[in-house]
């Protein structure tokens, strides 16, 4: 009996013990399972996080931040890894090296019209002169311009508006290398001419280091060396956009009553197409959405937009920004609708000297004998005599 009781108690205790072991094992297993599941979840999250960073970093490398699209979120998620990248993109942003882009004209004008409200530059800003060439193809007088620009890197930028089908690229050593902007067809005397000028201005405005903007044609030549022209423009407190009231039929006669009331006959002005603008005036020009449509609709031949739109616009919007004269000399003395074209035999030292210093004009409120910095129209055959005379007369570094 005593033994029987004992054996039963032992059996029961063994049963209880087994039960306890079983519950412990089940408990441990469920904890392990939980830990495993939790671990997997955390691990998964961690992996996702790491991969996201890697992706954003490698995608930054593969596709450098586009300067013409708003910055994407990966740049904002930058940590130390892409610190240099974001620095580079700031420099790229204030002074884009690549002038090519895929913006439409509307997008381009809007972007170029953005103006900083903090006037102190957070970088060393050496003001540059933007030379904007309106040309059909290759610049016929390019070797003269190459000579002109040589040794003045960092003080100028070049923009070329060409025929859209012109795709020639000069050698890398040329100042014109990769300076073509996205261009469209231009017809003389038509609104497309103004569109091209605005396109040049807007592209040049994207570089915040550009301070002065000169429009030049393929027949233009410089009349002085680079430093003289640079100082003349940079130090001038006004722009050089010619605007005057011409009472003749080829002036006021081209005014159309349907332009009123926005533009009255007393607002109407005429002037040379070849202008020079400071940043403020350039922004005023590309930002105009009020007068441009009126001109496009009502300034039709014999009214030519390139002779009236900018002179009238400036007179309406910011008359004090311009000196009312151009710095590009043209010989209209023979009359007619086209100025004189100079040929090979016309180019002599005496002739160039006369154009350089045969006039008086005001500059920053004082009389000066340097009035024109550029001259046109020079036929491609003038290149040889110009190259021969230039080093001596214009003080170019040969
Ligand atoms: C970026 O680099 C500059 C110095 O090159 C350093 O002072 C700055 O703390 C860095 N910024 C970040 C977010 O790492
Ligand atoms: C960042 O850009 C500034 C000029 O904007 C330059 O002086 C500086 O050296 C650059 N820093 C790095 C780390 O590239
Ligand atoms: C440019 O021309 C001016 C006046 O003719 C002269 O004083 C100056 O030394 C020239 N500059 C260079 C860099 O040749
Ligand atoms: C523009 O200049 C004239 C004098 O030439 C001056 O009377 C006028 O106040 C100026 N206007 C502005 C907006 O600066
Ligand atoms: C230029 O002409 C406008 C009128 O068209 C006049 O208000 C302005 O004072 C002139 N500027 C200079 C410098 O003569
Ligand atoms: C320019 O002004 C100077 C000095 O006032 C004078 O001697 C010269 O004849 C003038 N030149 C012209 C082309 O008017
Ligand atoms: C340009 O500077 C001259 C000389 O300091 C001054 O007489 C003239 O009023 C200034 N013009 C403008 C538009 O600031």
Question: Could you list some keywords that capture this structure?
Answer:
398 residues, alpha/beta, Spore Coat Polysaccharide Biosynthesis Protein SpsA, Chain A, four-stranded mixed beta sheet, three-stranded mixed beta sheet, 9 strands, 9% strand, binds 2-acetamido-2-deoxy-beta-D-glucopyranose
How would you sum up this structure in a few lines?
Pfam families: Branch. The protein has helices spanning 2-62, 73-76, 83-94, 105-112, 142-149, 191-205, 226-234, 279-286, 291-298, 305-317, 349-357, 383-393; strands spanning 128-134, 156-161, 210-217, 221-222, 276-278, 328-329, 361-363, 366-368, 374-375.
Structure report:
The chain is 42% helix and 9% strand. The chain is of the alpha/beta class. It has a domain at 91-328: Alpha-Beta Complex (Spore Coat Polysaccharide Biosynthesis Protein SpsA, Chain A), CATH 3.90.550. Helix 4 (105-112) crosses helix 6 (191-205) and helix 6 crosses helix 8 (279-286). The structure holds 2-acetamido-2-deoxy-beta-D-glucopyranose (NAG) (7 copies). Residues 225, 227-228, 395 line the site of one 2-acetamido-2-deoxy-beta-D-glucopyranose. One of its GO terms (molecular function) is glycosyltransferase activity.
Give the end-to-end Cα distance, rounded to a whole number of Å: 129 Å
> So, CATH architecture of the domain at 91-328?
Alpha-Beta Complex
Gyration radius (Cα, Å) is 35 Å
Number of strands: 9
- Reading the helices and strands in chain order gives HHHHEHEHEEHEHHHEHEEEH
The kinds of small molecule bound in this structure are: 2-acetamido-2-deoxy-beta-D-glucopyranose
CATH topology category name of the domain at 91-328? Spore Coat Polysaccharide Biosynthesis Protein SpsA, Chain A
What is the overall shape?
elongated
Q: Tally the helices: what do you get?
A: 12
Give the C-level CATH assignment of the domain at 91-328.
Alpha Beta
Strand content: 5-15%
Characterize the biggest β-sheet.
4 strands, mixed
Structural class call reads alpha/beta
Instruction: Enumerate the strands of the largest sheet in spatial order, edge to edge or round the barrel.
Output: 2-1-3-5
| Spans where pLDDT lies below 50 across 5 or more residues | 44-80
Q: Mean pLDDT score, rounded?
A: 84
Residue share in helix: 40-55%
Main location: membrane
Membrane topology: Single-pass type II membrane protein
InterPro entries: BC10-like, Glyco_trans_14
Transmembrane segments: 21-42
